[in-house]
Structures are given as structure tokens and as C-alpha cells.
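Predict the holo structure. Ligand: zinc ion.
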Amino acid sequence: MNFQRAQSAASDYAPGHGHREYTVSRYRLALDYSVTANLLTGTADLELAAREPLRAVVLDLQAELAVSQVEDGGLPLPFAQSGQHLRITLPNQLPAGTAFTLTIRYTGFPQPLDGPWGSIGWEELADGALTAGQPAGAPTWFPCNDHPADKATYRFEVTVEEEYRVIANGLCSGQTAEAGRRTWIFEQSEPMATYLATVQIGRYEQVRLGAPKPELPPGAPMQLLAAPARLLPKARTALAEQDRIFAAFEDWFGPYPFGSYTVVVTEDKLEIPLEAQTITVLGRNHLGRKSRRLLAHELAHQWFGNSVTAADWQDIWLHEGFATYAEWLWSEAAGRQTADELGEEAWRWLSHKSENLCLVSPGPERMFDDRLYVRGGLALHALRRSAPDNVFFALLRSWTAGFRHGNASTADFLELAGQTYAGTGIDPAAVLEPWLVDKALPPCP
Ligand SMILES: [Zn+2]
């Protein structure tokens, strides 16, 4: 099988989302949100560059958000909205490579999108709001080029009623209050895919986790917890291991790729935890011992998914297989079940399931199939067991270093594995391909 090195094409997995004709390098989102009315008013400043001669720009934005004005440096531009697209006509054709800006003003009552992945995007909570972008929810709250391979930096200025706290990606760089409303400013200075952008709004109190400041090495990421006051003690207990997971992951996967990590716990129950760049969102139902494995899984996504992002959704196993294997590694390091035991359990579970899933192109409906997660974990376990551990972990660290804050494909992983395993007598592609390409279940590693 030929593994493609796909880059920044419109995705078959999220039809209509993502546009190859241009890139966005920065989003500045000024959002004013009323929790009581679920009314969102936004101004989005985008810095773009044409990748080919450009006469018009098509951005992804759901129609619930009505655009009132588009301009480029003060010059109003004609635009039209239809379905999930905002089409903006440029004054002149721009040659490929030209940088330009767009300012888009919009307002509306944001709604989640229902589709094969359940409910995604902007969602009201009982007393607040969250966004769940993966894989195609970003256009429910801001105009964007919604493709995982078009990464950009972000600034968020989010204004809400004063009793609520806002958490967005990156570091909070300030807040101001006026007339019963408060504006929260966040900077995400590392490149980020649109689906990982998030705003969390609730009656949250925020505390710092992890080692006290004087003990932190310079540049160590800040660990934060935001939760309703009544849930803070329980959440702290649930996250008691997090400092040790951080240390183990940095050892195995290389330095944590961002400046901070915030766990948000919602007052609402959530079906699954949500991943975002620098943030994990848990429901209040995820604080028990049964959910403990999820903490390692979600933290691992900061390396696998958020820093190194699949070039397209067909390679989602590069996120979920790795995060699942991180769970197993942590379980073993914490003195619980070993990776061998968890692998065998997973293999037995898979052996009773139908064999109709191909890991490297699962199809949009099966991107988040449980089988993809554990088969991906098993693929990595098979690779680890094929050679000494130090080779496997060297590969993981080269992977996170070589593609840090970028995009990568399965072909990239196989190529890097081939380089790392050179001299071991093992062909990593031959080990991995039955797991990645075949539908039948290979023998238990
Ligand atoms: Zn995951």
C-alpha cells in the first residue's frame, strides 16, 4: 500500500471544510458572549496568504452566525453566506504568495453541529458554554480555514458576564472589567489547528497544580485546574498523579510542547473528555478512579495530536493510537497493569469484534471507533516489542521533535521509524503494516 503524504487538501473526512487556495497564519478573535441569551457577537481579524492566484476567499462559518461586515484594512468587501461557507470577493486578483488581512464582524446564536461524530462545536452548558471542535466544530463559533493542516497562532479577547470565568488556549495575558462584564485575554503563540481552538465559560475557580513555583525548572509548563468551587477538592484528588504523569511523559516523549496545561472540570456531565491545545475538559463524571486512565490519554494528546497533528483525518490513529499507548505506558509505570497485560486484554477484545476497520483510512464514521484506539495502541506495542526499548522511545522523541507544532502523516512516521530502526535488523514497516493496512487482526504482540 502506498502511504500518501497528504498536505492541506480539502478533507474527504469533513466535506466542505478546509480550503487549499490560501492559509491563515493568525486569528485574533474578539468575542462578546451573553451566557443567559446564548448570543455571540464577534470580530475576527485574520492574517492570510494566497497559495494560488486568488479572486475570492471561502471561509468556513455556520449560517447561524450572520456576518454584518467584511473589510480588508478599512475597505469594505462584498460577501455572501450560504450553508457552512462565507464567500468574500477580493477587490483585485491577488498573486500567489500575497499576504492580506480580513476583518469579519458577525453575530448570532451559536449552535452545535450534529453529525456522524455526535454533537460538536459551540454548546451551551447548564450554566456556561463550551466548545468541542473535533473534528469540524470550529465554524460554529468563528470564521476559519477548518483543516487540521492549516495551523495558526491565536489571540482571544472574550467578554462575558462578570460572574463567569473564561478559559481559552494558551496563556491568560490579562483581564479587564467594566459595567458588570469582564474581558479575558489569551494568547496561543504556538501554531494550532482550528479544531483545537476552544473557549470554556463557567463559574470556575482556578488553582495551580503541580510543584510549587520555586521548585519548577525554568520554562516548566504551568499546570492549572479550573472547576466549580464545590468540585475543586474532588478534582484535585483525581489529578493527584498528574505531576508524575507529566514527568514520565517528558522522559518518554520529550519536553511538553506548550507553556501551560489547564484541566477544566465542568459542572455538567460530559459523554467523553474533550481535547484542546493546552486544555483538557472533563465532566464532573470523569473524576472517579474508573476515569483515571483518561487523564494520561488526554495529556498525551498535547504531544500526539496537538503538537504533532495528522495532516488529514485519515491518519487519526497518529493521535488516538499514541494516546492509548501512553495510557498503557503510564499504567505500567504507576505499578498497575503492564502494557503487555493491557495489550493482551485489548487484543482479546478486538478478536471478538468484526474485522472491517483499516487503521490508516478508517472512513469518517469510524474515526473515533474504539477499535481504532486499541488497534493503534497494539500497533505501537508490536513495534516496541520488536526491538530494544531505547530504540522505540528514541523514535517517539524524534517524532515529537521533528514534527513539533506541525503536521505529519503515516508515511512520515514509517520513514522516521525506518531511519531510527536502521541497524537493528528490524524493518518497522513490516512490523506495522499488518496493523495499519490489513483488516484482519494480526497475532497478539
Ligand atoms: Zn483521544
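The pocket of zinc ion is lined by residues 297, 301, 320, 323 (CB under 6 Å). The chain has nine helices and 23 strands.
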